[in-house]
Amino acid sequence: MKLHHNRSRIAGFSLLLIAMVETGMALYGPYAVPVFDLRSLPLFLLIFATLLLGARLGLGAPPYGTAGVGRLSFTTELVLALGLLLFLFNYIFAANANMDYVQRFMESGGNLQLAVDTTTERRIVAVRYLPLVTVLLLLHLSFAVRRRRYELLLTLLSVGLTALSFPSGVSLSGIGVLGWVALTPLIYVLWRGGYRRILFYGITYGVLATLLSNYWLGTFSLVSLMAVVLIYFGFYTVFMVPFGGAVLLFRRSSPAARVFLTAAAWTVFELFRSTGFLGYPWVLVGHSQYANLPLIQISEFTGVWGVSFVVVLVSAGLAELLGVFDRRNGVWSTPTGGAKSYSWVVLSAPIRHILIAVAAVVAATHLYGWSVLLLENRYPEADETPRVALIQQNSDPRKHEYERTFQTLRELTDRALKENPDIVIWSETAFVPNIRRWGREDPERYRLARLVREFRDYQGSIGTWLLTGNDDYQIVLDEDGREVERLSYNAAVLFSDEGERLATYHKMKLVPFTEYFPYEEELPFVYKALEEFDVSFWEPGDERTVFAHPLFTFSTPICFEDVFPDEVRRFVLNGAEVILNITNDYWSLTEVQAQQHFVASLFRSVENRRPLLRASASGVTAYVDPYGRVVARRPQYSEEYLITDVPVSRQGNLTPYTRYGDWFPRLAGVALLLLVAVRIIILRRSRR
Description:
By secondary structure, the chain is of the alpha/beta class. It has 3 domains: 1-148, no CATH class; 150-326 and 347-379 and 662-688; 387-508 and 544-652, Carbon-nitrogen hydrolase (Nitrilase/N-carbamoyl-D-aminoacid amidohydrolase, 4-Layer Sandwich), CATH 3.60.110.10. Helix content is 52%, strand content 10%. The chain contains 22 helices and 12 strands. The strands form 2 sheets. A 6-stranded mixed β-sheet has the order 5-4-3-2-1-12. The chain has a 6-stranded mixed β-sheet with strand order 6-7-8-9-10-11, covered by helices on one side. Helix 10 (255-272) packs across helix 22 and helix 19 (565-573) packs across helix 20 (591-608). It is globular, with a radius of gyration of 28 Å.
């Protein structure tokens, strides 16, 4: 006991010393920060928390008993989790400090104040945070070894496995097999903790996994990554509060109930975090299995939610199996040959049954998928096979010169025209000057008007259909016919082979905080802050346009609209025979973001059994068939075009998912409520 107490004092004094040194560096060092500045608040908050913890360890009474040590260990975990979050968050922005896309915002006079030298920024982050985080980590390890409690480490293991299961900097394709076990350590921890620990570990997992999976948002703006982390802190808090209660309610129930409850609750949560103004269905559990073609075929019934359910079901089953090997719960067999020799563990009947059931679900879903892939002729043969040219100009239209981008688009289109496409597709906002507005101005007076005239002349000369991303607007008039407002839209515009503008689609699902914020009157301070960070707002469209080409009909979800299952299926219900996404993934300056976007959108082809085409400014320009197979794609960050023949059926068969939408997670939610109700009734009767 005395030895542990001395170690605690040494650790406490070390924390005090490092925290005081960091305070001096923050106030008076070469990298000093302003005290009364919101951007400095997280650093000083971490230093203050470390000072309190160091004072408790170094100057306070030694913790006695299991409860005292447990409380101090949990406090250490809280401070360590805060330190890890702040370190990672600041390091991501330091790593992006001299990215050329970020510099565009600096030149615009906004509030972005990042150093030009990323090496200096990384050094500053290391000096400010690494000493504190390192000592806190060592202190936590000492507590963990002493108490044989590794909950935070297991939670962090789940964070790492989750990030690696999706496309990442380690593997651009993602390591899909890790998706089956990524949540196992976390589920094991959640089912063995008290209520406050369930909340802490669940929220910690959610925030850190979100940060590591979405790190590329740091190349865009401070607002984007910060907003996503804060939103997901809220999402996981809202989820863990009832889930923690359910864990306590079912802790002593059957393994089958625990496994089903975990998988169903997680599936419902994924729908919840994908819905509404803040909805962001990125890196869902099911997305890790995009390359597992047999498994994802169930998406035509359940949507991507069914794939997530199966994967979490396996993780939950493995967590139950992991609990069998927990000696502290007395479920090991009796030692038979010395202190380090144990007989075989005998699994109880309930554990065996649930493992068999989980294996049966996995086998059945794969068997169905294999049969579908072997029997493709169950769907009607193609009535038409339009040839489509997808143009990838490898530039950001909002950053590079408009004339330069237009020139590249023309050169690539001219090359593609040699293969006689029926339609040419340009990406999101590929042509930037507003065609409707500047087409009405004098080309002799205005540069943008001249550029629009050149575009119209070129499009009319190529003799084929063309769709391009563009800005659009709508004028709002008062009763006297005077303009009172001009609404701006992110749009897709279709031109016929004779140069006639036929139809326009206005993007309906806008990116929250960076494209759209509807609460200007309710939260004016947030709206003003977003404007100061150079956020450009659009208006959401109100019509699901289905474009009509002589050979096929198609709709164009723009940018991240194609990651929303329900949004895309509604286009198909309106008559779209082809899903055609136009996007600009150039801005992220990393292939990881575009690949994550692509694997999420790939599920829309299987859910609706429709061909999926994607034209990206630079990202994944590709053709995916109705079974989720990537037929053709072009390398990222290169000037390319893709010519592909797309079989299209006019019979318009609708899948169960297209017809009924997100019935599966909703049914899972109803089943959860019934399960909880039955459990409560059983417990009440048992107490009588």
